[in-house]
Amino acid sequence: MAKFKKESKELLTYLLFEASNEEAYRDTIKEEIEDRFIEINNTSFYYNKKSVRKILRDTKKYIRYSKNPETNVDLLIYFCKQMMKHVPSYKRSSVLKGIIEREVISIKKTMVKLHEDLQYDYGLEVLNLEEKL
Question: What is the pTM of this model?
Answer without folding.
Answer: 0.90
